[in-house]
Amino acid sequence: MVVLGSTGFTTPAQAVRVATVALASTAPVAQEVASFWLADEAANLRNATPYTVRTAVGAERLSTDIVPDGPPRTVVAPQEGPPPYEGKTPTTWGKVFFIGGDGLPHWCTGTSMQTKYRNLVATAGHCLFDIEAPMGALGKWVFVPGYAEGETPFGLYVGKVGSSHYDFDDIRDLDRDYAFVNVYSGVVLSAPDVLTHAGHLGVNVGGQGLAVNQPLGSTIDVFGHPAGAHPDGSRPFTGETLERSTGPTFATRFTALRADRPLGVDSPFTGEGALGSSWVTDYASDTRTGYLSGITMSVSDTDGDNRYDTGISPYFDSELAEVYRYASGQWTGVVVR
């Protein structure tokens, strides 16, 4: 049984420190970023490859519980997107594109979140922060919901500022490998080299809700764009379409890396492309929404059969809710009018 609990925020005993990182801090910079991705028939979007940084980890499944830091609760309810139009069904899921530390275009999975400004994207922390560098963000960060083969059916959204838990930015704490990115209103190309305003992200596609301190054993749906190979070399996913898997959650323990409360879920997703996949509690197919309760930060082969069987997420607790609360109050503006 899903336990969503009450709605609202609680005040922690000690304020959570939020790390923020500037992305495209002004509209002119955002215009340059959008043009970079959309120019030449979206060549850079088409040429982007799945991000391969820390896609898989060694992990063991545990029969123990994870002790939450408070009661299970909903932080915000989801908002359904508009009805299908022109043959397109709005979706909160899509790909976040960026320039990696290697100077090349890459992507992870992301999703639109419900906020009052309708401008927030959730993904893995290391799909925002460059963990291979001493500090700073990945470059030219954008989100494209419903992305497919160079098409931006609901617009392209340039990131303005990203937020995560301070401990992830400072010490790369794996228990905090999540991020929220505030994006400008969307743009599309109405003619070669001409950017046109496309509206707010949440208005165009809706937004997922958020739930924290959920009990283990809950059956959740995982949505993402897996694309890489299993250890045995097989490639069941292409990354071109949104995939869904369903399974229960459980506690895990890393065999090499350190984390206090990594959460696992039964999922066959491969790591490349699946980074940032949404774990959704109480998903409703008719509205295409539910409550985000986890984000894939890596995958693991826990039974040693050379096929990934487990998605790994930080445990969503009250401190994550505070990071979301901070990010949800950030206004962004437009790229073009």
UniProtKB/TrEMBL annotation:
InterPro entries: Peptidase_S1_PA (IPR009003), Peptidase_S1_PA_chymotrypsin (IPR043504). Residues 67-86 are annotated as: Disordered. It comes from the Bacteria. This is Serine protease. It comes from Nonomuraea glycinis.
